[in-house]
Amino acid sequence: MPRVPDSHLAARRDQIIDAATVRFAANGFQATGMADVIAASGLSAGAVYRYFRSKDELIAAIVERVLGQAADRFQALLAEDAIPDPPTAVATAVGLVADLGARPPVDMTRVAVQAWGEALRNPAVHAVVDRAYRIIRGYFVEVARRGQAAGRLPADADPLHLGATMLSSVLGFLVQRLLLGDLDPAAYAEAVRVTAAGSPVTGSPVAEG
Question: Which residues form the HTH tetR-type domain (predicted)?
């Protein structure tokens, strides 16, 4: 039999991941079974199980897809020994969140939030999510370390917690964007910059002492 091209295999795999992402985003992890994913994919059960043996493997594949996109953004940000400031790093990640929310087939950030809840009850998912967020936080920690080396950040501050604070700003944007829907990525990133600088927002009243 002729060998199936790698491009065909990759396309089938992406087709399954897209179908799973749509189902997870709509119904959550617990309410979505492999039968739902198979039906949404338009493929046979055998074809789907050839690529993914379980729902946990599908979740891992979705997380890896997002992680790869995050890695690309941060590697570009940190290329050639650049020294980005924390607000720029947060703006980069906020932009990624906005892109993931607007990219078809479905708002990927809805799946990200559901993965947090699933990670609290499913050790396999927790392991995947834990690894992903530690990697993403690691990029922020590197931003902090470079800032300290350049004298932009206090040398005695803990880079781990500086990085964790930057990540929290991004996750806060993600949650508020989904729940409240009234945040603009560029305006949010600018507000982070203003807050970090400790300067009053232009046009806002300043309290008198």
Answer: 10-70
Residue 133 maps to which CATH number?
A: 1.10.357.10
Query: pTM, whole model, 2 decimals?
Result: 0.84
What confidence tens digit (pLDDT) does each residue in 99-135 have? 999 988 889 899 888 888 888 998 988 999 999 999 9
The residue behind tokens 């040398």 is 155
Evaluate the CA torsion angle 200, 185, 119, 138 in order and state its sign: negative
> Is 185 a member of any domain?
yes
Note the pLDDT tens digit of each residue in 57-67.
999 998 888 88
Helix (H) or strand (E) holding 66: helix 55-77
Report the pLDDT value the prediction gives residue 5, as an integer from 0 to 100.
75
**Total tally of structural domains belonging to the chain:** 1
Number of H helices, E strands in the chain: 9, 0
